Predict the 3D structure of the following.
Amino acid sequence: MKAELLNEFNLLQQSRSNAKYLDVLDERVYMPVRKVNHRVFNWVHSRGLMLMKLESTMNRQVRRFKKKYFRF
């Protein structure tokens, strides 16, 4: 019984070799983190572009209103 358990333990250790462990780590931890980082980066990028476009549009409107209503 003890020899069978040791055999099973050795097989388990061999099946969890470093390469397989790195593959599992990459698949279950790093890939989801990369996906989330990519989505967050894209969201922040698109939001920043939208805000810059909104600011430039607002600045044009303010300049137009200044010319139209605040002539001195």
User: Anything to note?
Assistant: The mean pLDDT is 86. The CA atoms of residues 29 and 70 lie 59 Å apart.
